[in-house]
Structure formats: C-alpha cells, structure tokens
Amino acid sequence: MPDLHDRVRRALLDDTAREARRHGTQPIRERVPRALPAYPELQSRVRRSKERALDSLEELLDQAGARLMSHGFHVYRAVDAAAARDYILSHMPQSSLVIKSKSNLAKEIHLPDALREAGHRVIETDLGDHINQLMGRQSGHVLMPAIGVTIEEIQKTFQEQFHEPDLKPRPEDLVASARRHLRPLLEEAGVGISGANAVTATGEIVLMENEGNIRAVTSLPDVHFVVAAVTKVVESLEDALSVVQAASLYGIGQDFGNYCTVLSGPGRDIGPDVHVVLVDDGRVKAILDEPEPFYCINCGSCLNVCPVYAELGEAYGGERLGGIGVMQTFLLNGEERALHDGLDLCLGCQRCVPACPVKIDTPAITNRLKARRRTIPTGPLRQRFLRLVHSPVDLKRSRWALSAAATLGIAARWHRRGRKAEDFIPVPTSHQPLPAGRVYPGAEPIRGSVWIFPGCVMDAWYSGVHQDTIRVLNANGYTVRVPQQKFCCGALDAHAGATPLGSPSWDTFSGNDPIILNSAGCGAYLTQHPNPLSDRVEDLTAFLTRVGFRAPPKPVSGTPLAYHNPCHLAYAQQIAEEPRQLLAMAGYHLVDVPAGEACCGSAGTYNLEFPELAWNLARRKAADLGASGAALACTANPGCLMQIRAGLESLGSNIRLEHIATLLAHAYAGDVS
Amino acid sequence: MTGLGWESFAKKGITVRHIDSPVDFLKAWNVLLETHFGPVAVLNDPISATWLDLYENICWIPDDGGRAEILRAQVGFTGASLALADTGTLVLAEDSGFARLVSNMVSCHVALVPENRLVANWQTALQRLDQGRSHRPRILSFISGPSQTADIQGQLVRGMHGPTAVEAWIVPAVEGPLTLT
Ligand code: SF4
Ligand code: SF4
User: Fold this and answer.
1) Mutate to test the pocket of ligand 2, among A245, A306, A358, A361 (most ligand atoms within 8 A of CB)
2) Which ipTM did the prediction report?
C-alpha cells in the first residue's frame, strides 16, 4: 500500500468517492439517534458483557469448544492465520466452488487468496463485497464495503461482467441483476464460509445480516466453515443477541437486523457439516496488554461519524479500517504497521466514543499507544510548536510577531493564498497576557469566587478572550482570580503522543474554588485525565448554566448567530445545549448550520501534521457557516477559533467569528454591532 | 396477548393478514397467488398442516420433496414459532434445517403465526423457548422483513438474496411445542 501521506493526498483529491461516502453514511447518521432511545440499557449491557468475556477468555473458549462439539460442530482453535488456512484447506474437496459471506477476519488471514491459490473458486456473496470483487477494489467500510463506488461504476461493471448491456443505473435493477447472477452460484456451491457476530460459551453461533446471503451460505453447501476471532466469544445467547442488536442499532439504525441466525447445531435432516474455526492470531496476548480495542463488535458506527474517515475513506487504515482498526493493528501487528495505516490520523475529536455500542474510547487508547512508541515521527513544525507552548518567553515573543503579521495584513493574505494549514497564522487579540495573581472582583450581589485557567496558547494569543471570560463571570457575581503560575494542560503533548515537559504546578490553584476554562480542548483533557484538578475544572458555559446565568440587563436584539460547538465540548464533555441556551438568553438568534456537528480539523496540533486534511475540514466548516446566512459566528475553543478564522479568510468570507465569551461579554456591555 | 400489537411487522415491510376461518385463508391464498404465481412449498409443521391440509398442488417438505423442490418454489409456507412485537420479527425454531431453506430460498415467504405466539421481544422469546427444555432448537431464524441491501449508494432496495416479499398470516391460537420440525 502506498505511503501514508501519499494515500492521504490522493484520497483528498477524490471528491466523487467522498460524496458517495457521504451519501451512504448520511441516512445512517440520521436514523441512529432516532432508533437508540428505545434501548437505553443496551450500550452498558454490551460493554459489560464484552468486558466479562475478555476477562475470562481462556475459560470461555474452553467451554465454548466443548459445548459446540457436543452440539455436533467440528471445532478447531487456530493459533495463527496459517493454521486456520491449513485447517480449512485440508477439510474441503478439490476445486470447490466456495460461497463466502462478509468476514473481516477471513480477509485478515488472507483466506480468499489462499483458497484461490489452492485452485478453488471463491464468490463473495454480500452485494457490496461482490461489487468490490468484480471491480478488484478494497473494501471501503466494514458494513458497506462498496461505499464510495458510484452507481455508474456499478452499472458499467455489471453490464460487462454479467453480460447485461441494457442494465440501467437504477439500484433496483442492479440489485435484481446481481440476484439473478448470484443465485445459481449459491445453489451450486459445495463450500460456504461465513464469519460470526458472536460465539457463545453455551455453544451457539450467532449471525446477523440483511441480505439473506449468510442464510444461504450457511445452509446450501455441503460444508460450512465459520471463521471467527476468539474475541467473538461471549458468555450466553442473551449476550450474543444483545451484541447483534447493538451492532444493528448503532451500525445502521435498525432495531434488529433483517435476519438473525442462531446455530445450536447443524440441521438434523438437511444442511452442511459445520466447522467452527476460532482464530487467535495474537489476540489472547494482545488483550492482556490492552483489551478495549477487542471489545469492538464491528458495527461500523465509528466510521460513520468520523471526520477523518469522511475525508479519507479506506485510506484511513489498512486491512482494518478507521481509528479502531489502526489500534487493533498496533496491538496485533506492531507499531510500524499502525503508523503506516494512520496512527496519527485520529483527530482526537471523540465523536466516535458515544457513537460506539461498546463505548470504546478510540482517541484515548490512540493517545496511550502513541505515547508508547519508540520514535515520535512528529514533523519539525509540530515539535517547534510543542516547545513553544511550554515556554512563556517564546510564547510572548510569538504574540508580538503574530500581532505584527496581522496588523500588516500578512495573515489575511496568507490565508487567502494558503492551501495548507501550515500557512495558518493565528491572529492574536491585542491584549497582554493576564497578570499573574490578579483578582477581578465580581459585581454585587457577589455569589462566590472562581479561578480562571490561563493555559498556554490561550493566554499568549487570546488573552482578550480571557478578559471577556472574566467580565462575564464578574457580571454573574463571581470574583475571578488569576493564578501565580500558568501552564499548559498537557493535551497538545498527549495528542502528539509526547510526554509533557516538566510537571505542572497544580497547587497554584489553592483552595476549593471552581477552575473555569474557556478552551474546550483543555477542559476535555483536564476532566478526562486524572490530575489533582479534575474535579474542580469546569467549562465556562457549563458553570454558568449550573449556577444559573444572570442574563444581561439589555440583551442583544436578535442578531443572527451561527454557533459551532467544538468536538471537545460536544463529544468529550457532553456539553451541547448549554452554550446555545446562554447565547439565546443573551439575546442572539441562533441559526441552523449545515453539518453543524462536523469537526473543523483543528484538534491539537493536527493541522501541523496533516495540513491538507486539516485545511479541507476548515474550509468545509467555513463554507457551512457561510451557508447559514449569519454574519456573526462563534465557537468555544481557541483551536477551532484559529482554524475556522483561517478557513473563513481563505474563502474571502466576511463572517466574523468570535469566542462565546466575547459575545456574552459584548451582550453585557450592550455594544454588539 | 395484552398490550402487544402487530404494527411493527408492517413497518418492517411484512404484509400482515388476519385469518379467522378457512374462508379467510382461502381468500388470502387467492390474493397471494395472483402476485406470486408458481410452485408452492409448504413446511410440514403442526401449524401449516392444520391450515393447508386440504390444498392441492403444493409440495410438502420433506414428505413430497427436499432441496430441489424448495429451490424451484416461488412461494414457501412455514409456521412461526414466535413473533416479537417490538422489532416486528418472526421466529422459526427447528431441528431439521428445512424451515430455514423454505423461508429463505423462495420469492415469497408466508409465515403462519398463531396469535398466542406474539411476545414482547427476543428476551421473552428466549425464555419461552427454554421453558421445559434442556436443549435449544438447533436452528433459530429471526426474520424481520424481506431481504434487503443498501450497498448501492446507501439506498435501501428489497429482495437481494432472500425473499422479496414476506407475509405474516395471523391464525387462531395453536398450543403445543414451539419447535416447527
Ligand atoms: S476521535 Fe474523531 S478522528 Fe479519532 S477516530 Fe474518533 S471520530 Fe475519528
Ligand atoms: S469501535 Fe465501536 S463503533 Fe467502531 S466498529 Fe467497533 S463497535 Fe462499532
């Protein structure tokens, strides 16, 4: 496979595939949130059952093996890919016609190639896989393998290969054509190969699907091989059905797949002899190290919401797709393969975490794995940036230089000309960093006192936002204290997989007062990573909502406003409504933004590592804000602010983008233009 | 059954017909054969046997035919062991392996569902299946609508490999074991 940066560059140029991907995933993104509320317990249930299963995997595998055999299945535990292939090849007749249903594991162990080399003919029966097989392309999605292929390409392929030159580019016609073409093959095949959604310790195989090909593959031939990773084992049939229901709900927004087959034995009177091949291939060892990635039930939900997948498709990953796939690859095949597959591509936006039926925290695990690598292949720009955030002196100097660039109009010119995020120049506010130790008294009646978390970049480049934050807090009756020591929260290092330099002076925030943040990224990091402050830090918007917002005496008179909720508020801290409510109470009229949930691509130092990708996301976000029709926009994170402002400038947009604290402060001052 | 309804089946694209008498059955049969003309395979299970005993020109499985006859059939009748109200799902429990074939390899699958077999969800279904049995049936098929695919541009199309049409004919209560064959 081509080099990572090459792959990324090529994928970014393929607008057709991106559009086709969006087309395929959008209906699912709409359906899933509507389907989930009816099953509030499911996510925790599935998570617990996978945790339990992998905790006592060896034991469950023994039980499953014994029970499956007593039910009349042949069972084979393959230590590695080669053993699995050998077993299957030695248990099938010469020159078989093999019908296969979707199995990511079969692909991983290169089973189809091995079968072909041994003289068998392999037919992929899942429509998407079949399209890929005919076109000789890789799968683009775990559930929708042919996502990214346009209908015209499918039409042309079918016309040629099925000899049906008059086929129209209508989905119904193409599906009917595939049905006609595949049916005789299903009837004729001697061998069937399927995966399994779950294998139970009580001796059942559970499969879920929509097409009916799995039912055909598992019932028509003389021999059926179930190829399943050992990590598919769960304790009970109840657990297994929860798994398939969750996969269906989160993966496609359907409350139960069309077909669910539970095999507790081969058919008594008719049906194939069944071999269950349980493949380890490094998993038992890997889960001792890091089990979470192996809780994955392959539903594809994370891909459907991932901004990087949306841009790159199958270029995000290798044999296994997306952030989760890359982590599994890291643990099974090592760091180098994972780097090549895109370990550094995860933005850390956390959007996939609530979207996962097993609550797998892909970005956190990614950071953990990154921190382990021997070499940090970070670009020189990124390294310089990380050094910068830890050096108060350098930060101060950078502010002067950047202010000068802004004043001279250099920044704006660069953004318009710029194609890359490397060209981004933040435009600092004209304020000096906050004076250490300063106390800003709240307005009467006083309700209490809080700390402000100055941070690194925020304080150096956006201290005007700090001033606005203080004003809003003061107006709400809170006295605000600036600590003696300022330091970086560590999020930028963690995202880069680096160890933070030096240890932060946590005790500068003495007492028990809440510590208020106006940077969603720092907030996410400090609340999620154990530290002496995690219980006290709170995002400005959450804090104001919690204590009761004192609305401005003279609210703004309905200025239309487009709000971009940062991923690190929405997905990392589950803060979505609070900012909107505060803005509405301050008198702004919030307008709808197309694709409002999409990431702007800022994410820590990402724009320094994958500039083109970050740049694409920034421009798309800027265009979406523009499409809202508002002349004023706001967000709640310095990274997003910097990123989207650059995007707006590059589009030559007149939209003014501010931090939420600034707009709230303006509402108190009554000076919104 | 109190409080449970058949609405979700229609939502899943399953045609629901209520059959209270042999006359109702004959009417439904005639309507069915107008749209699905061709050989009919019927699984010889206690439910189908009650209703289709007197019909001619049907192939009883496995008595009159097996795999080849099923693969040729246009319409396939089976009983349903249970039905799940929340997800609109038919459950076929069997040991033989024939119910799976008859319900999957025909263009139109008709499941005869005794009205006392409607349960809330799969959890209740498993409890019912486990009652008084030491072994689970060898094959459980959960069917929630016609075969479908969204593999072409994310657009849902019915009738990929399995039946293009699924009907649930709700018949009066049938007591006895849940396993069909
Ligand atoms: S954190 Fe964001 S970028 Fe990373 S895998 Fe999840 S959705 Fe994708
Ligand atoms: S990580 Fe979670 S969301 Fe992604 S495929 Fe696995 S189970 Fe589904």
Assistant:
1) A358
2) 0.98
